[in-house]
Design goal:
about 250 residues; 10 helices; elongated
Amino acid sequence: MNKLLYIVLFFFCLNTAFSQDPPPEKKTDTVTAISKFSEKDIAIDSTEIKSRSFSKLKEKYSDSSFEYETKTQEKNAWDRFKEWLSYWFGKIFSLSSEEASMSFVELFLKILAVIIILFVIYLIVKAIMNDEGRWIFGKSSDKKVIHYDEIEKNLHLVDFEKLIKEATKSGESRLVVRYYYLWLLKKLAEKEIIEWDVEKTNSDYLYEIKSEKLRNDFSYLSYLYNYIWYGEFELEEDTLSKAVKSFEKTIKAL
């Protein structure tokens, strides 16, 4: 029993001995150690420090590929208008989703744009066509649209027979006589009997006509034209008929 007690005491003492803290290390006085060195023993770095600028980094990496934040694009008036149309089309036609409504709006706007373009083309075509629907630059380019106030400048392009029929049908007697007179000048110019010039007078043309009979006929027809066209009075049917016959007789003889 005593031996067992001694053994327990032995292990207890041994454990106490090893569990004690180690003795504290002796600290070196830092101030004393540094004071042993003089200023000569301290190396001073005299290298020139160069400043570096990073101002170009922002410009270099400002491309859209370096933008990692998704920015919501602001809607303009056109986008809002399409959304408004999409909303109402969706309600009217009971479309299944907003995407379907917007697709319908896009298709509608494209069709509308095509219709507008075709309408503009139609107006242009109509503007450059004559009364008979023939193209100015088509096969019938010799029959261009001539306004009445420009007939004298374009005698060779005018269909006087057609104009006379239209004026007769509408009851414009004085205009009928004017067309006959201009038709006569056109025929004389085509036969090279006169040289047509809008600035010339009846007397100038009369002087150019060499045939005495034709000169007398032209003098009489010029008188009829001046009397009827410039006279401010009602033209009787009998007078008109005689004038027409006289013009037609001379024109057919050319």
